Amino acid sequence: MKKQRSSLKSTIAVSLTNYLDAGAIVAGASGLTLWKDYLGLTEGHLGWLNAISANCLGAAIGAIIGGFLADKYGRKAIYTYNMLIYMFGVALIMCSFNFPMLLMGFLVTGISVGVGVPASWTYISESSEVSNRGRNIGISQMAWGIGPTIILILGTLLAPPTGGIGTEGLLFGWVQGIANLFHTGISGSALNVFSSRIVFASLFIVAFIAWLLQRRLDESKEWETMKEKSTQTTQSSSLSSFFSNKINIRTMLFLAGMYLTWNLVSSVMGFFQQHIYETAGGLSNEYANMLSVGQWIIIIATTFVYSMIIDKVNQRWLYFLGVSFAVTAWLLIITIGINSIAGLLIFTLLWGLQGGISVQSFYALWASELFPAKYRAAAQGIMFFIVRGLSAAWGLGFVYIYGENGEGFTIAAYIMIALLVTSLLIGTLGAPNTRGKSLEEITRERYGDDV
């Protein structure tokens, strides 16, 4: 019981990384229109912000670095320094007054997010008991839902007026007061964007708290045991042995395949959802944020249920159920129409349900189970690099398919459906049978004793 409490405590501390990852993505998304107006950005500029952010390339670069560092120097090394990088990136965004500065802030924040992700999932898995490994991964995913929910609520309360007096958020008066401390008489888009600056300031505070908690974590016992047993090898020889193993290659193809096809859709929704609701759907910034808040509340509730049952049920069919919600959501939004309130509400509900039983939850669990400890984090870093890197390229293409005002939404939606169906098939057919087994047992079954 004491060990279970300890694993839960460390899971909560590490899960703040997930809060900050999703929080950074949604903070950028909720203020996207505000930054666009303030800096005079085009859809192409928005595509680049998405491409190098925590949503895509920034996280991709960070993940491949962080994965190798976590395997070579330990999981704790990541937690000692990484949040300082995150705070620097967020500070750049908060103080941005031109596009290059904003772009650099998104990139630095994204790199920090990527560095932390492989270490987080690995550490949670290695510090969990056999009976609650899935539960702890699920709890970490709840942080991925709590972060956006809080950020969106804050964004809604601080939202500037979009349709005249009375359409602003309840706390927009605070925004005016804070903005006037820096520039007396500030108005227009320069004032409105302070809403987004304050939202990012909240992430800076949480990142500081996360740094204080995470730097006190103990090192992973499994990593320490692996280091004691392993002979001294160079990083290049470890990398060579990783790619020469056919089991590793097959596992990477399976995991990256199911995660990539889902993430190409999810990354667009994570960064552009409010923008889509405002342009194609015709909602105000405030109502777009409110609808997204409702969706994230559904995600949190569903993720809680997921975390309670994942260690007890057939994971293959639970995966199938989750992705089926996603496919149905996009089929219905095409049928009913995104400019219909009923269509938006049904889509929000179904997309929220799939988010609670998300492919990312299964990817985080299976990726941390299916590789040996000596390159468990590095393998995740490589796959995360591939997935988020390709998501960056897709994000750049999406804005041109979608159009300035959502005229290409239907074409984009059909592409989303094709991607989700592919993820559904790969994950359902290839789901591993790891429930109830220790990490050591899984490794022996897959690799034998010579690892």
List keywords for this structure.
451 residues; mainly alpha; 0% strand; globular
Beta-strand content: under 5%
Average pLDDT:
86
- Share of residues in helices: over 70%
Count up the helices.
Answer: 20
Multimeric status of the protein: single chain
Order of helices and strands: HHHHHHHHHHHHHHHHHHHH
Largest sheet: none
Radius of gyration: 21 Å
Total strands: the figure is 0
Structural class: mainly alpha
N-end to C-end Cα span: 31 Å
Shape: globular
User: Unreliable runs, pLDDT <50, ≥5 residues?
Assistant: 233-237
Please, could you describe this protein's structure?
The protein has 451 residues and is mostly helical. The protein is 79% helix and 0% strand. It is built from 20 helices and no strands. It has helices spanning 2-30, 32-39, 43-51, 57-73, 75-94, 99-127, 133-157, 172-182, 188-192, 194-214, 221-229, 235-243, 246-279, 285-309, 315-336, 341-356, 359-369, 376-402, 409-430, 439-447. α3 (43-51) packs antiparallel against α18 and α7 packs antiparallel against α17 (359-369). Residues 233-237 have low confidence and may be disordered.
Fold blueprint:
Layout (H helix, E strand, L loop, with lengths): L1 H29 L1 H8 L3 H9 L5 H17 L1 H20 L4 H29 L5 H25 L14 H11 L5 H5 L1 H21 L6 H9 L5 H9 L2 H34 L5 H25 L5 H22 L4 H16 L2 H11 L6 H27 L6 H22 L8 H9 L4
Summarize the structure.
This protein is mainly alpha-helical and 451 residues long.
